[in-house]
Amino acid sequence: xxxxxxxxxxxxxxxxxxxxxxxxxxxxxxxxxxxxxxxxxxxxxxxxxxxxxxxxxxxxxxxxxxxxxxxxxxxxxxxxxxxxxxxxxxxxxxxxxxxxxxxxxxxxxxxxxxxxxxxxxxxxxxxxxxxxxxxxxxxxxxxxxxxxxxxxxxxxxxxxxxxxxxxxxxxxxxxxxxxxxxxxxxxxxxxxxxxxxxxxxxxxxxxxxxxxxxxxxxxxxxxxxxxxxxxxxxxxxxxxxxxxxxxxxxxxxxxxxxxxxxxxxxxxxxxxxxxxxxxxxxxxxxxxxxxxxxxxxxxxxxxxxxxxxxxxxxxxxxxxxxxxxxxxxxxxxxxxxxxxxxxxxxxxxxxxxxx
Amino acid sequence: xxxxxxxxxxxxxxxxxxxxxxxxxxxxxxxxxxxxxxxxxxxxxxxxxxxxxxxxxxxxxxxxxxxxxxxxxxxxxxxxxxxxxxxxxxxxxxxxxxxxxxxxxxxxxxxxxxxxxxxxxxxxxxxxxxxxxxxxxxxxxxxx
Lengths: 355, 144
Description:
The structure holds two protein chains of two kinds. Chain A is α/β, with parallel strands linked by helices. Chain A has a single domain, classed as Alpha/Beta hydrolase fold, catalytic domain (Rossmann fold), CATH 3.40.50.1820. Chain A contains 14 helices and ten strands. In chain A, the strands form two sheets. In chain A, strands 1-2-4-3-5-6-9-10 form an eight-stranded mixed β-sheet, sandwiched between helices. In chain A, strands 7-8 form a two-stranded antiparallel ribbon. By secondary structure, chain B is mainly α. Chain B is built from six helices and no strands. The N and C termini of chain B lie far apart (about 85 Å). Chain B has two domains: about 60 residues, no CATH class; about 50 residues. Chains A and B meet through strand 1, helix 3, helix 5, helix 6 and helix 8 of A and helix 2, helix 3 and helix 4 of B.
């Protein structure tokens, strides 16, 4: 009997591992579970308001709007219960809103930064103000979302923007040596018009390939080895499953915005040089007066710190802070250290400025 | 505790040295690959591959598109361009509706403020005259 136990256990363990592996590779994890209500829509864009958990007198009066990148799903901010930035901020008493850009269809291939910053964002913010009853608000932009919020802050910052938080913001494209994307999309090698003529929008799969190809071994091999090594640890498996569900859920980038990103920003660095035009208006970063917090990830290979730092010298904000945190582009907000370092710092900075 | 088989298995895991070697190899491989993808040669090669794919596939894409267009025409069905055009018009209508919605919100807020204003003045009772009451009726003001 004892012998049979010894023989069968390794098989049972192997079967369990295989079952877990199949499950995490073929299913989507339950994500974005913090209760919310849909309060506004326009085309594919949706504005959600998270249901407050604290009574009104204990909440911060200034609402916070989260703006994520155009080519990824924003639920990375609300990955899973107990490990969600959204949940954390709601518990800290913020009136929290999330702008989800949705997935652009063929009809959206002409959408540009102009449309996102001057049609979509002002309307979403107008709704936020109507619901919250506050004329002032805070903006948090992450990655491409940080480009959008920066443009908005420079063009419409006088419409009640009090606080601006930029997470891993790719704003300065002058250092071509350290920007792998800039090298790949150099006009000698990459014909942006030909790509967009073929696809309309920049396919999410191609963007995903580009992001993963920056660290190919880590993303295509190491990631799965990490899962296999920890397959008996339900905590790590659950975390991996949630992250993998997000990573594999790709969104295309609207053709017009992609062209601007490559031609105006990656190739010509127009935003930092003060030459970026949005519907005939020059995006002048010195017109940003809101309190500013710029967060830089030390190990960020997608947006190196040289892209985020220079804005500090360009804005006119009297109250500005640069915060460096250990971690990668996504890890600083969704990694295991996020709840210990990044989130408390964001709350500590924003809380007193939201009174 | 000493009989815990998992503990023993961990202690005598024969795969552990192999894992260590694997991780060292992976690190070295990873660094080499990062250097490779960061090179001009990689940018040039990947650009050339993408360009070839787009050039070769373009005639096929065009042919499929034309054939599809003809088929949809024969079947009296709307083409992709027709659907896209309708979708764009829908977005424009949505924007107009959103602006109207915001204006209505504003009007509603003003009505509520106007309605609440007399109540905020304690001791000032509303005038009983018929004419005055009908004029200050909030609903009528809203309709205007």
